[in-house]
Amino acid sequence: MARRQQPTARQMRLGLELRKLREAAGLKAREAAALLGADSVQMSQIESGISGVSEARIRRLAAHYSCANEKLIAALVGMASDRTSGWWEEYRGDLPTQFLDLSELEHHARYRRDVDFLHVPGLLQTEEYSRALFSYVNPEFPEDEVERWVEHRMRRKVIIERADPVTYEAVIHEGALRIRVGDRAAARRQLARVLVMSEISHISVRVIPFDVDGFGGAGSVMVYAGSVVPELDTVVRDGPNGPVFIDAEAQLNRYRTLFRRVEAVSLDPERSRDFIQGLTKEL
After folding, report:
1. How far apart are CA 12 and CA 14, in angstroms?
2. pLDDT digits (tens, 9 = 90+) for 23-72
3. According to the 3-state scheme, what is the secondary structure of 14-50?
4. Beta bridge mates, 204
C-alpha cells in the first residue's frame, strides 16, 4: 500500500494497537515482518500508520499473535478498511491537524462523555457563544479565521443531530454555566440551548453545583469517546498546542473512574434541568 505523508490519529491508533498485540506476543518487529514476507522497515511503517494494512494481514498477524479477542480483531479490520473522507477534510490546511483528528474520532465514536468546569461543552454551544470564546482566546485571529473555527465547531454537532446519533452525556459545573462568555442576552440563549438539548432522549446533561460537598475533581476536564470495543476508547484533553489523545489502558481506566465520580456528585438530569432554569431566571 502507498505510504501516507500525514497519517491521521485514527490510522496511527490502528498501527499502535497492532504493535501492542505484537509486543504482548513477545515478538520483535523483524519476527512479525517475516510472518508477512516483509521486512522490519515495512512493519515499522504499518505500526506507525505510515502504511496501510489489509484485512488478510491483520487476521494473519492476530493468529500468529494468539489474539483470541474476535471483537477487537473485527474492530481493527474495520479501521483498516475504512476509506471515509469526512466533512472535516474541508478544513485541512486551515485548522490544526489535531482538531480534524478530533472530528474523525467523534465521527466513529459509539458514545461520548464530556466533563467541563469552565465552559459549556462544544457540542452544546451556540454559535455566538463559540464565536465569543474563539475571539477572546485568539484576539490576533482575523474575523474570517474566527468564522472558520466557529463553522467547524458547529459542524461537529452532527454526531448528536444525525439520524443515528451517538449517546451523549455531559457533566457541567455550575461555574461553566455562570461565566458570561458573551453578554447577558447571549448567556441566556446559551442556557436555553443547553436546556433544549437536555430534553433529547439520547442526551443527558448533569450539573455539579458550587455547594456540593466533598468535591475535588475540577481537574477532571475531559472528552471521552467510546469505541465499538473498550480497548479502542480514547480520552481527549486540552494541551498547550491543542487536543491530546490518550489511549493507554491504565489511563482509560483512570478516566472511566473519574467520570463515574463526577457523575456521582452531580444532580440527576431532571434536577439539573430545574437548576439551569433557575440560573436562566437570574439573568
Report:
1. 5
2. 999 999 999 999 999 999 999 999 999 999 999 999 999 999 999 999 99
3. HHHHHHHHHHHCCCCHHHHHHHCCCCHHHHHHHHCCC
4. 169
